[in-house]
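Schema walk-through. Below, the input block comes first and the output block second. Nothing else is stored per chain. Lengths vary across the set, and this one has 327 residues.
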Amino acid sequence: MLVLVLLTLLAAAAGGGAMLLQGSLRYLRRSEDASAMRRSLEREADRVMAALAGDPTPGTDSPLDPVWSVIGVPEGEGVVLSLADVSSALDPNWVQKNVFWRTALRSLLRSAGAADELQQRREDRGFSPDLPGAYGDLFAEGVLSRYFTAYSYANINVADEFALRTLYTLRTGDAAAAEIFHKKIQQLLREQRVLRPDELQAFLGPGYDALYPVMNAEPCMNVHFLDPLILTELLAYPALNVPRPQESALAILETRMRSELSSADLLKLVAAPGKSRIYQYLGVVTWFWRLTVAKQDARLELVIARVPGPPGEPTRFLIVEERYGRS
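--- output ---
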């Protein structure tokens, strides 16, 4: 009887151990499958990033670039790729209130005083990547996702002067130097002078390494992907001195449908004086892309930043945000 009991207990223990082993093996297989899935999606993302970096016309980004052929023909079976420009929009963290006051973009605001409130809120609370949470109550319903972005650099020539001061303080940790910097910005505004990219390092001085490229002097938005409303209203902004804004808007919208615009092409179509700040808003380069790679229940989402190098050095592409999940 004792032997029988012992044999029964040993059999039960062996059965339990086998079940535990089988469970461990299933978990290991699922983990290996998940890792293999993620690696396959990352390989697709690497192909897209290589295509962005290998653009034969690196000075301009458009729907005619080779990267879109890569997007349309994934290597992996069942993989779906999508790419979107997420920087060619207005950034509530930097935008000047006059852009709303002096154009029909005021229709995007929830109330007449919202532009002032936006400026003051940045002073009181700082910047935020959570646009609905930080600024949602200031804008009309549904407009934030279409016309605004939190993925952008601060162009020193068109960003709000107080936002630039705050950014200087955050990046350098030197509030006293930020006040001096702010006075220099005000001097530029009084002189109506546009700072060139090759002047930026001298202007920023000791703060340059901490500030660049988050603060730069490059055009903010790519006209190839910019929403027609923002394009039209920026061209019509009286302070930017575009001689025939409606004609320019139509010409850009028509041309971008059939060909790639260079910086020189844009100058001809806008026809504003060379020192107009319209060329600080409008350009032909995309600074941030959102790439989505999906297969079955797995999804990899990346935000890719184009990082401008010092004059004469090549552009780099860096992943600044990554999300992976399975449903």
